[in-house]
């Protein structure tokens, strides 16, 4: 008897919630019509919105790109079933308003992607808001000081050399290989050495993907599968009643364990050494040192949980986006032999013989930098982000209320013909030459976001990419495998659907 009443009670709650959600959705849609009257509407059904067309994050990204390519719109609006209508910026004017606003926050809440991501990375710099974000950003900024970044070039050279030896062995028979797993291991190795002073020779071993990298990729896929299924937004249902939720927790445990081991290793090292020994061991504090020793204005240290959250954040963000960028750089060079030759000519003119890149040298690579920027435009490493207004914001004469969802579309911005011209789908590094960039809006090219929440590690990433590309192009001639076309897909980062297969031909002058 009691069981039947319990079921009736639960059903009443569920039906009531659905009814409330439906009424709220219809009310929001009517409000949406009023506020968004002059904003282009990407909608294929009055109720479903674009739900039937969007089965993955890549579907949404490509839908946005095609719409912008066709219309040249500054922005558009749309929705998925039972989700509130969102604004999708695709033009520098709108990006300027969003990134210049004080209270545009990472989107948490019931349907917020950052709430779901927090189970993985907690409340690190990538997901946190408000005072916590301000405090931690201030504490961590010294880890990316210019003088510290200069010293990392030697580490980039070391990890890139390991990569080149591995890729040289893998392609010695003339066959192509999927370059992404090798690059992903190399960028993880770089992040561990630079940010954590953690050296593990097994990170770049041949064979299967490193367990941490494999876990990260699976977590990303599971996260976006969940975002497209509103019934899974309830944590209780997702984690207790689905195989995907249990798998997500399993991989979260794996990445957390990896981070915990690194932190514990560092604490033991610090405890075992005197201050003089620490000074002799290394000239500067790295990222993990700063996390452990930092104190805020009140003299409070980061908790163990906060340290782990930041390590989780930087291990992921510090290797995955850079791996995407480098992979597409090498692919683009292989696809465009003339561009590759021009890059090699510049590098060999500045860096003759067996010399390795230095912090001074990489600042002189003007054309190579243009190529990298064009890759970051063409294959946006982070194709989209989600924000929410904490207070009303006026854009283009329209005032949007607090709580309005803003789905930032970097990929659509970078392929907007109204911004980049009708040749936006052509690979042209000369776009970024100084004489061609004079009148470009600073909000037209945003691979690292902008405003107060721009990427704290953007200079670290650019230096790493330049060093990697310069070294690889000096040693190898790159050619794409014409039988295995690389098809970009948007996930957390932009990856290739079935891999990026390249031939690496050892150059005689490099051996």
Find the count of extended strands (DSSP E, 2+ residues).
12
- Level of helix content? 55-70%
- For CATH, the homologous superfamily of the largest domain is named as Cytochrome P450
CATH topology of the largest domain: Cytochrome p450
Percent of sequence in beta strands: 5-15%
Structural class: alpha+beta
Averaged pLDDT = 87
Q: Give the CATH architecture of the largest domain.
A: Orthogonal Bundle
CA-CA gap between termini: 82 Å
| CATH class wording of the largest domain | Mainly Alpha
Strand order of the largest sheet: 1-2-8-5-3
Describe this structure in words.
With 511 residues, this protein is an alpha+beta fold. It has two domains: 35 residues; 475 residues, Cytochrome p450 (Orthogonal Bundle). The chain is built from 21 helices and twelve strands. Strand 6 and strand 7 form a beta hairpin. Helix 7 runs antiparallel to helix 8, helix 7 crosses helix 21 and helix 14 packs across helix 17. It is globular. The mean pLDDT is 87.
Give a topology summary.
Elements: H1 2-35, H2 57-71, E1 75-78, E2 86-89, H3 92-100, E3 104-106, H4 113-121, H5 130-140, H6 146-151, H7 153-170, E4 177-178, H8 179-196, H9 211-227, H10 235-241, H11 243-272, H12 275-281, H13 287-293, H14 304-335, H15 337-350, H16 359-362, H17 366-378, E5 385-389, E6 393-395, E7 398-400, E8 405-408, H18 410-414, H19 417-420, H20 434-437, H21 458-475, E9 476-480, E10 488-490, E11 494-496, E12 501-506
Parallel strand pairs: 2-8
Antiparallel strand pairs: 1-2, 3-5, 4-12, 5-8, 6-7, 9-12, 10-11
């Amino acid at each position: 008897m009691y069981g039947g009443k319990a079921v009736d009670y639960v059903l009443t709650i569920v039906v009531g919630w659905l009814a409330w959600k439906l009424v709220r959705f219809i009310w929001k849609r009517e409000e949406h019509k009023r506020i968004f009257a002059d904003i282009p509407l990407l909608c294929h059904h009055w109720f479903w919105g674009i739900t039937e067309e969007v089965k993955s994050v890549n579907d949404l990204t490509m839908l946005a790109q095609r719409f912008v390519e066709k219309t040249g719109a500054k922005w558009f609006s749309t929705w998925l079933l039972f989700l509130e209508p969102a604004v999708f910026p695709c033009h520098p004017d709108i990006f300027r308003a969003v990134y210049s606003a004080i209270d545009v926050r990472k989107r948490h809440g019931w349907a917020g992607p950052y709430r779901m991501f927090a189970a993985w990375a907690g409340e690190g710099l990538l997901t946190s808001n408000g005072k916590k974000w301000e405090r931690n950003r201030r504490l961590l900024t010294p880890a990316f000081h210019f003088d510290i970044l200069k010293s990392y070039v030697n580490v980039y050279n070391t990890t890139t050399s390991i990569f080149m030896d591995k890729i040289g062995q893998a392609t010695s028979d003339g066959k192509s290989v999927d370059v992404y797993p090798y690059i992903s291991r190399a960028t993880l190795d770089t992040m561990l050495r630079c940010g954590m002073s953690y050296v593990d020779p097994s990170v770049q071993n041949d064979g299967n993907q490193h367990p941490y990298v494999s876990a990260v990729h699976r977590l990303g896929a599971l996260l976006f599968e969940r975002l497209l299924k509103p019934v899974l937004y309830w944590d209780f249902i997702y984690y207790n009643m689905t195989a995907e939720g249990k798998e997500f927790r399993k991989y979260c445990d794996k990445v957390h364990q990896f981070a915990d081991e690194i932190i514990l290793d560092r604490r033991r090292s610090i405890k075992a050494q005197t201050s003089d020994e620490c000074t002799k061991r290394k000239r500067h504090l790295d990222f993990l040192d700063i996390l452990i020793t930092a104190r805020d204005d009140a003299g409070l240290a980061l908790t163990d949980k906060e340290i782990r959250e930041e390590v989780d954040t930087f291990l992921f963000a510090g290797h995955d986006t850079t791996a995407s960028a480098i992979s597409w750089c090498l692919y683009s060079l292989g696809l465009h032999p003339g561009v590759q030759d021009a890059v090699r000519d510049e590098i060999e003119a500045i860096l003759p013989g067996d010399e390795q890149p230095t912090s001074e040298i990489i600042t002189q690579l003007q054309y190579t930098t243009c190529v990298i920027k064009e890759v970051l435009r063409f294959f946006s490493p982070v194709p989209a982000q989600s924000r929410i207004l904490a207070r009303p914001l006026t854009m283009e004469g329209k005032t949007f209320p607090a709580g309005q969802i803003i789905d930032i579309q970097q990929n659509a911005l970078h392929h907007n013909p109204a911004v980049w011209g009708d040749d936006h789908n052509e690979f042209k590094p000369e776009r970024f030459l100084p004489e061609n960039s004079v009148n470009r809006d600073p909000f037209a090219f945003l691979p690292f976001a902008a405003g107060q929440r721009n990427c704290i590690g953007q200079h670290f990433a650019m230096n790493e990419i330049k060093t990697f590309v310069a070294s690889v192009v000096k040693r190898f001639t790159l050619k794409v495998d014409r039988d295995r076309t690389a098809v970009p897909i948007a996930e957390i980062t932009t990856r290739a659907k079935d891999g990026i297969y390249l031939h690496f031909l050892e150059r005689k002058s490099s051996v």
